[in-house]
Amino acid sequence: MYYFEYERPESRAQAVQCMQGDARYLAGGQSLIQAMKLRLSASERLVDLGGISDLKGIRVDEGRVVIGAMTTHAIVAQSFDVRAAIPALTVLAGGIGDPMVRNMGTIGGSLANADPAACYPAALLGLGGIVHTDRREIKSDDFFTGLYETALEPGELITELSFPIPERAAYVKFKQPASRFALVGVFVSKLGGAVRLAVTGAKSTVFRQIDMEDALSHHFHPDAVTSIDVDVVGINIDMHGTCQYRADLIRVIAARAVAQALA
């Protein structure tokens, strides 16, 4: 690991002030620290957000679930408030990694990292959530811009995430057994006449499967998606599967997610 300076501010304002030069925010560190150990990433300064208490916590108000950016996956998975409002979110959080990852990793860190096989990006996009930062609000459709890339500007700090409470929602993933990342994961939600279906693990970034959304808006049932052929253009190819394999998985996992949402 390369040499770096370490800062642990106690407030948002102090954190932003520390972001000078080649600095990066440190949330749970489950991705960044491992990359730095392997010398795949380097920064002159890490600004640890763990000491900022008002970046943590969960509340439900005005038809929304609001989660602080430094709230861990384990806290989301165990939250009675989240389970009552959006049970699919607790299922998703409880299936991330292993106990160590869930107790250290944070929702804000996961979304800022934008791993193409991570689970939380599917929830944000599949629910039509909003990323709140120290500067603005970013809609989920505008947040993910590419492989490990987001709309965040240098030094911009995610403060909390808000999710509308849907009538129905579910998350299902076909996981890589060692890492528990998604080979394909699907988050589907229904709110009024609007249906959103987000896919993670299949391309360089999370995306919405619009043809499935259209079909489900007319008939919210697994049968609505089982006959849809997914275009293989842009689908990942790696040691775990071909593009056609993942395309077929999208259809299968989407049908399972809809069935689970109806259960």
From TrEMBL:
UniProt keyword list: FAD, Flavoprotein, Oxidoreductase
Cross-referenced SUPFAM superfamilies: CO dehydrogenase flavoprotein C-terminal domain-like, FAD-binding/transporter-associated domain-like
One Pfam family it belongs to: FAD_binding_5
Cross-referenced InterPro entries: CO_DH_flav_C, CO_DH_flav_C_dom_sf, Diverse_Substr_Oxidored, FAD-bd_PCMH, FAD-bd_PCMH-like_sf, FAD-bd_PCMH_sub1, FAD-bd_PCMH_sub2, Mopterin_DH_FAD-bd
Protein name, entry field: Xanthine dehydrogenase family protein subunit M
Source organism: Alcaligenes endophyticus
Recorded superkingdom: Bacteria
Domain FAD-binding PCMH-type: 1-168
